[in-house]
Amino acid sequence: MPLSITDEQRDTLIAMAAEAKTKSYSPYSKFRVGAALLTKSGNIYTGCNVENASYGGAICAERTAYVKAVSEGDKLMVALAVATDADAFTSPCGICRQFVREFGTSTIVILTKPDGSFKETTVGGLLPDSFGPDDLGFETIEATADE
Ligand SMILES: O=c1ccn([C@H]2C[C@H](O)[C@@H](CO)O2)c(=O)[nH]1
Ligand SMILES: [Zn+2]
Q1: What are the names of the required cofactors (predicted)?
Q2: Which residue of 11, 74, 96, 117 has the lowest C-beta tally within 10 Å?
Q3: Model pTM?
Q4: How far does residue 19's CA lie from ligand 1's centre (Å)?
Q5: DSSP string spanning 86-143?
Q6: Which structural domain range is residue 115 located in?
Q7: What is the full per-residue pLDDT of the chain (147 aa) written as tens digits?
Q8: 147 lies in some domain
Q9: 78 alpha carbon – ligand 1 mean position (Å)
Q10: ipTM above 0.90 for this complex
């Protein structure tokens, strides 16, 4: 059974991703990104992109949120919402796709626009035929749907 969230949880994630976007530290690109990540425990971790004068040192909003969750001991990822200022459904970059895939392919990904519209997919939808822990003989630690 695929993971699912309620409309209320989705609304909350979208609002929190938009709020997290306002914390973006992006003086170079001026491209603000916010993320909100719901874990199985019910916690929500937010993140924004944090850039650096050494440009390659930037971290995306999605990875910020994941790092906050994992470093608090939360690894069962249920749903991730992403917000930008663009009038398009900005999709996570390749590095983030691989990074989030580590913690499951079934995690729901909600891409949003500033007008509140959204598009729902999954990590596996964004990164099909992915390389992951399983390829190294490890099990992917991931959230599963409730019975
Ligand atoms: O999904 C994305 C795409 C880009 N960025 C950031 C990285 C950089 O700070 C800026 C421009 O690429 O946006 C994110 O945080 N998430
Ligand atoms: Zn990224």
Answers
A1: Zn(2+)
A2: 117
A3: 0.98
A4: 16
A5: SSS-----HHHHHHHHTT-S--EEEEE-TTS-EEEEEHHHHSTT---GGGGT------
A6: 7-136
A7: 899 999 999 999 999 999 999 999 999 999 999 999 999 999 999 999 999 999 999 999 999 999 999 999 999 999 999 999 999 999 999 999 999 999 999 999 999 999 999 999 999 999 999 999 999 999 999 999 987
A8: no
A9: 22
A10: yes
The reply, when asked if residue 17 is annotated as ligand binding, is no
Are 94 and 29 a contacting pair, CB within 8 Å? no
Tokens matching residue 2: 């695929």
The first and second tokens of residue 54, run together, are 């050494």
CATH code assigned at 80: 3.40.140.10
State how many domains the chain has.
Answer: 1
What are the catalytic residues?
Answer: 62
Instruction: Return the best residue to mutate from 21, 23, 49 for the ligand 1 pocket (most ligand atoms within 8 A of CB).
Output: 49
